[in-house]
Write a structure and sequence with these properties.
- By secondary structure, the chain is α/β, with parallel strands linked by helices.
- It folds into 2 domains: 4-209, DHBP synthase, CATH 3.90.870; 233-327, Rossmann fold, CATH 3.40.50.11030.
- The protein is 31% helix and 19% strand.
- The protein is built from 9 helices and 16 strands.
- It has helices at 8-20, 42-52, 80-88, 122-131, 151-158, 197-204, 242-254, 283-300, 316-327, and strands at residues 4-7, 25-27, 34-38, 61-63, 74-75, 93-99, 113-117, 135-136, 164-167, 178-181, 188-191, 208-209, 233-237, 259-263, 276-278, 303-307.
- Strands 2, 3, 4, 5, 6, 7, 8, 10, 11 and 12 form a 10-stranded mixed β-sheet that branches. Strands 13-16-14-15 form a 4-stranded parallel β-sheet, with helices on both faces. The protein has a two-stranded parallel sheet with strand order 1-9.
- β11 (188-191), α6 (197-204) and β12 form a beta-alpha-beta unit.
- Bound molecules: threonylcarbamoyladenylate and magnesium ion.
Length: 328
């Protein structure tokens, strides 16, 4: 199969044709690129799991356009959910709600909840409106690899496996949506992202963070897998261990290998003269650059030596979750 990359404008009719006849395509969103299929079509959804090599017990997010009547898909039992929808949707927030069973059982991994998201990406909205069905989509990478933030990244993983990638430009968010369980009295973050705990508290009054301890029944199966890993070696140091990071860099160089340090801009002087993958000045920039720099790094480096930021508040919570899984 040849894989075409077309702009949203040039490819939307073809995308619609493929999706409505049970095929799968790469689509842009504001967070990362998705691998989309008709969420009501079991055979189409199975193709997603096959192409990605994704474990079948890990459910998918259903994406809908902003005027879609979501009451046809889920039950909403908590009033704060309406406030969250009003405040943050469309946007990088995924709500886990009680499913009405319209989305096929393969997509929800046999569970009774559905993760629902309204992307704010204009091209994605146009596609969702054109098909007017919920499109289920995981990130458009091979399972365990770093998530794609450009059409070229999707192509690198899925060339020959899907017929079409809609190119909607570089993703503005850079890490995946916040997955929020809103079935209970207090919303619970299952996967941290760009809509932060603080932002949710402001609207819903309170917000918990699900802890994933060994032996717990996993509520969001995706979080139990190793994830986001670049193809080269990796190491991770905290911001208090810059000397150790520099020492590892030097010992790698001595072995004849090519190391790169990945860090925020404020450490660029500390590591002056070394190969650097600079992530930016603040949380938004770091989120935007993280996957892009990991994917750039795996091409250039034998080892990416990541140095963290000394923060876990706001968007840093989601960033640290990705950094630990990709480099830790
Ligand atoms: O930003 C995003 O969310 C991207 C774009 C493409 O929309 N999608 C994405 O999908 O990251 P994926 O499949 O890579 O991650 C979905 C996460 C997984 O951790 C999965 O376990 C969780 O959402 N999830 C999906 N359905 C769920 C459900 N019913 N209950 C709990 N967790 C769920
Ligand atoms: Mg993913």
């Amino acid at each position: 199969m040849t894989t075409e990359i077309l702009s949203v404008k040039a490819g939307i009719e073809k995308a619609k044709e493929i999706l409505l006849s049970g095929g799968i395509i790469g689509m842009p969103t504001e967070t990362v690129y998705g691998l989309a299929a008709d969420g009501t079509n079991s055979a189409a959804v199975k193709k997603i799991f096959e192409v990605k090599g994704r474990p079948s017990d890990n459910p998918l997010i259903a994406h809908v356009h902003k005027d879609y009547d979501i009451s046809t898909l889920v039950h909403i039992r908590q009033n704060y959910v309406y406030d969250l929808i009003k405040a943050y949707m469309p946007g990088p927030l995924t709500l886990v709600l009680e499913s009405k069973g319209v989305i096929c059982k393969e997509a929800v991994a046999g569970g009774d909840t559905l993760a629902l998201r309204m992307p704010s990406h204009t091209g994605c909205q146009e596609l969702l409106r054109a098909v007017n069905i919920p499109l289920v989509a995981p990130s458009a990478n091979l399972s365990k690899h770093t998530s794609p933030v450009s059409a070229q990244h999707v192509f690198a993983d899925l060339d020959g496996k899907i017929p079409l990638i809609l190119d909607g430009g570089r993703c503005k968010g850079g890490i995946e949506s916040t997955v929020l369980d809103v079935t209970g009295k207090v919303p619970r973050i299952l996967r941290a992202g760009l809509i932060t705990k603080e932002m949710i508290e402001k609207v819903a009054g309170a917000c918990e963070i699900a802890e994933h301890k060994d032996g717990d029944k996993v509520k969001s199966p995706g979080v139990k897998y190793r994830h986001y890993r670049p193809k080269c070696d990796t190491a991770l140091f905290s911001i208090t261990e810059t000397d150790k990071a520099a020492a590892l860099y030097d010992s790698e160089l001595k072995k004849g290998r090519t190391p790169y340090i990945m860090c925020a801009d404020n450490l660029s002087e500390k590591f002056a003269g070394k190969n650097l993958l600079l992530l930016g000045k603040d949380g938004e920039e770091i989120a935007y650059n993280l996957y892009d720099k990991l994917l750039e790094g795996e091409k250039k480096a034998d080892i990416i030596i990541a140095v963290s930021f000394g923060r876990c508040d706001g968007v840093y919570l989601g960033i640290m979750n990705r950094l630990v899984k990709s480099c830790g």
